Amino acid sequence: MSQSDTDTPAEPIPDASTQTPTPSTDTSANHRHALHTNLKRGMESRHLQMISLGGVIGTGLFLSSGYTIQQAGPIGTILAYAIGALIVYLVMLTLGELSVAMPVTGSFHVYAERFIGPGTGFVVAIQYWLTWTVALGSEFTAAGLLMQRWFPHTPTWVWSAACIVLIFTANALSVRFFAEAEFVFASIKVFAICAFIAIGLLAIFGAVPVAGYTHAPMFGNLVRDGIFPNGFMPVFATILTVNFAFSGTELIGVTAGETRDPETAVPKAIHTTLWRLVLFFIGSIVVMCALIPWREAGVGESPFVLVFNSIGIPYAADIMNFVVLTAVLSASNSGLYASTRMVWSMGNEGMIPRWFAKTNRRGVPMLALCAAMAGGLLALLSSVIAASTVYLVLVALSGLSAVVVWIAIAYCQIVFRRRWLASGHAVDELKYRTPGYPYVSWAAFILCTASFLLVFFDREQRFALVAELLFIVVCYAAYYVQAWWRKRHPSEPELRLP
């Protein structure tokens, strides 16, 4: 394992955008990586873009957005989502440079290990793995509950088990099959949101009748009770929630190692992320708040259902139940993929036994996949038998873990660019460059760090911050205890490729 840190000069990783899993005589670091793992580059640009959206658009938008509106009001919610989208975009710009220069699967902790230090690399890997593992447990539960609407006499666990089998199979067949499945799931969500916004705008301008209005509603409901009806502090709390809601966009970095032509696909996916997030999230919020008084937006059921019912669309609740079910399947599909690749990458880097990095003839790391699924099942079990203790702590940790990863990404790009220039390379040699460096990079780092630390001022989320800080300390301690043990008990050197 590399012992590099930010004060030790290191040779920049050569460009690996053209690497393939086929044998080669190239001895660069990235080619050794590809040869050792045998992962397949089976994803295309369209897959990458849908995966980045599928990782973000989930039940939070379809079900919980009404609660957010009630807390911050219409304008406050729109402002919070706009700031959250800006933060995500800045992080993605820094990730783009790293992912194109070093398109390796499980990229976050590899970058952190190389540009910050091996202990930080281990912490980032565990943090990101935990984020998706806990999400897996909640999504499996949600799938079973959603099916209860149509099959009320069937036990919930039956449908949860069916979801588990489906998602495991999609990931086990091949990375191409996973990508196609995610493309379908994410497409349904995107179509539903576009239809919601389009129909909602027609209703807002009076082209479609709306219950309770004899004229075009327009946008009066947005400011009916003032710009910040509950004050500005709820807006601040909403920004924190929005950051968590936007976690998943960084999946682009995880998939870069298995994407065809990452030099083109990754920047394209990044640049389309911001405007799509703005369109889908802010557009939906504007439609909801214009057609439904904001104080009623989170009462009882999804604001999407309330809007569809007010317009008179038949079977609105069933339609949204189906859409939310696809959102759950999409989130669990992406979650299992991300968790698997993080386990695989830790094995590949020697942080855990290296046999976790083994792949089958289809390029699927089955041992890592089984380990990731086991983690999701344990999270599911804890949500059933220890919801108020173990699972509560896991949820608190996973909420802030994504922000920790964002902080690491931004700082790694700053160090990478500094070392790239110090080693005699020119900026023009980079196939993709973070625009506005170093201002964009430092803005991403500072805003993410502020989002993390300012959780302290939100009483409801203060427990999450304390738990996360303690967990980070435990992760560092675990790494250094492991390093001490290996030093005291050296084993036979492992066979490495030349």
From TrEMBL:
The keyword Protease does not apply. It is found in: Membrane. Residues 1-30 are annotated as: Disordered. One of its GO terms (biological process) is transmembrane transport. Keywords: Amino-acid transport, Membrane, Transmembrane, Transmembrane helix, Transport. GO terms for cellular component: membrane. It is a multi-pass membrane protein. This is Amino acid permease. It comes from Bifidobacterium ramosum. The lineage of its organism: Bacteria, Bacillati, Actinomycetota, Actinomycetes, Bifidobacteriales.
